[in-house]
């Protein structure tokens, strides 16, 4: 008769163990979640703080860039103003030098006129000049009318100026009133006592070639007191 062997099964009777294991796992998971959340929150908070700091720094940098751009613009404007001011000062100096040179020239002229004792009594024409300009059709003129008398009085004289030349192959003459738009009277009436400086600009017609300048002065009310001089244009033009 064969022998029968029965398997021995040992059962542990601990009903509390499974819930304890499950609870422990859940607790561990909760603790891990809480720890992760806390660590994540700290990291997020630090990132937010850093982000805000970077935003503030970026705004400051942008503001500084705008300030520097404004400084550059202001400096450029200042340099431009300095250049304009320097050019204005230079032009003023040049203008003052020209005025000073003209005044010195006139002063020398007046001194020479007052020192000239060789003249005969009567009217005299002196210091005739024609000066070219940048415009070939416009020239400046200047002359001095003076009187020499034993008893100097205020007088008035008529001044006639005539420019003779050629135009289109024909000889033609122009009066002062025709060539100087600033002179309305022909002849020109000039009051003076010792001498008088007369000057202006002649507007020459196109293609007109001046050859001779004739100047006549006569005392108003006494045609016997007069003077007339003729000049070759090339001799008085400068």
Describe the structure.
A hairpin with a 2-residue loop joins strand 7 (209-219) and strand 8 (222-232). The mean pLDDT is 77. The longest helix is centred in the N-terminal third of the chain and has 99 residues, at 17-115. Strands 3, 4, 5, 7 and 8 form a five-stranded antiparallel β-sheet that branches. The chain has a three-stranded antiparallel β-sheet with strand order 1-2-6, with no helix packed on it. The chain is of the alpha+beta class and 238 residues long. The chain has helices spanning 17-115, 176-179, 233-236, and strands at residues 122-132, 138-148, 155-167, 170-175, 188-192, 195-203, 209-219, 222-232.
Features:
5-stranded antiparallel sheet; 238 residues; rod-shaped; 3-stranded antiparallel sheet; 8 strands; 3 helices
Concise summary:
The protein is α+β, with helices and mostly antiparallel strands.
Uncertain segments of ≥5 residues (pLDDT<50)?
none
Q: How many runs of DSSP E, i.e. beta strands? A: 8
**How would you name the oligomeric state of the polypeptide chains in this document?**
single chain
Order of helix and strand elements from N to C terminus? HEEEEHEEEEH
Rg from C-alpha positions? 54 Å
Q: How many helices in DSSP terms?
A: 3
Main pleated-sheet profile = 5 strands, antiparallel
Strand content: 25-35%
Approximate helicity band? 40-55%
Query: What does the overall shape look like?
Result: rod-shaped
Distance between the termini: 165 Å
Q: Which structural class do you get from the secondary structure elements? A: alpha+beta
Mean pLDDT across the residues is 77
């Amino acid at each position: 008769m064969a022998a029968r062997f029965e398997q021995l099964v040992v059962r542990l009777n601990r009903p509390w163990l499974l819930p304890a294991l499950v609870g422990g796992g859940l607790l561990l998971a909760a603790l891990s979640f809480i720890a992760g959340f806390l660590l994540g929150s700290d990291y997020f908070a630090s990132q937010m703080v850093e982000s805000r700091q970077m935003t503030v720094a970026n705004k400051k940098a942008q503001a500084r860039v705008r300030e520097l751009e404004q400084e550059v613009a202001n400096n450029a404007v200042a340099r431009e103003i300095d250049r304009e001011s320097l050019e204005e000062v230079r032009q003023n100096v040049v203008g003052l030098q020209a005025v000073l040179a003209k005044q010195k020239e006139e002063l020398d002229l007046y001194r020479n006129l007052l020192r000239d004792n060789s003249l005969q009594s009567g009217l005299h024409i002196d210091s005739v000049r024609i000066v070219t300009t940048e415009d070939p059709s416009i020239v400046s003129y200047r002359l001095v009318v003076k009187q020499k008398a034993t008893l100097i009085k205020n007088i008035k004289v008529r001044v006639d100026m005539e420019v003779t030349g050629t135009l289109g192959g024909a000889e033609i003459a122009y009066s002062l009133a025709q060539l100087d738009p600033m002179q309305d009277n022909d002849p020109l009436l000039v009051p003076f006592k010792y001498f008088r400086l007369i000057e202006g600009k002649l507007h020459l017609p196109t293609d007109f070639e001046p050859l001779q300048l004739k100047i006549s002065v006569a005392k108003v009310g006494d045609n016997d007191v007069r003077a007339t001089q003729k000049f070759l244009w090339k001799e008085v033009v400068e």
